[in-house]
Design a protein that fits this description.
three-stranded antiparallel beta sheet; alpha+beta
Length: 106
C-alpha cells in the first residue's frame, strides 16, 4: 500500500472555509439522511437502509473544525473509493467526486 500522507496536506484555512452545509450536501447526494442529533454541537446522519451513522459538527466555529473536515474527507474518500482532492473539490462547490478507476476504459 502506498502512503499518501505526504502528498495530501490541505491548509487549515482551506478546510475552515468548507461550509457545514457542504458536508451535509455531500452525504445527502449519497443517500445519507440527516436525523435529529442527541448532541447539540453535532449534526447526525444515517446511511439509508443501513446501520451506519455519522456525526459532524453543527458549526464551523469549533477550534478543531479544520481537523474534523480533514477527517471527513479522508474517511469518505476511503469509504467511497474517491480521490481526497476530488472530495475537497466537491465540498468547495465542484463536480460530484467519482470513484477512482482501476483501469482505463476501452
Amino acid at each position: 500500500m502506498i502512503d499518501c500522507s505526504s502528498m495530501w496536506a490541505p491548509k487549515p484555512s482551506v478546510l475552515q472555509a468548507i461550509p457545514v452545509g457542504a458536508v451535509g450536501d455531500f452525504l445527502t447526494r449519497r443517500e445519507w439522511v440527516q436525523k435529529p442529533s442527541s448532541l447539540p454541537t453535532s449534526r447526525y446522519f444515517e446511511l439509508k437502509d443501513s446501520a451506519l451513522h455519522y456525526f459532524f459538527p453543527a458549526s464551523d466555529h469549533l477550534a478543531d473544525y479544520p481537523m474534523r473536515v480533514l477527517d471527513f474527507i479522508e474517511n469518505f474518500a476511503r469509504f467511497y473509493d474517491l480521490d481526497p482532492h476530488a472530495v475537497l473539490a466537491e465540498l468547495q462547490g465542484g463536480q460530484r467526486a467519482e470513484p477512482v478507476r482501476a483501469s482505463v476504459p476501452a
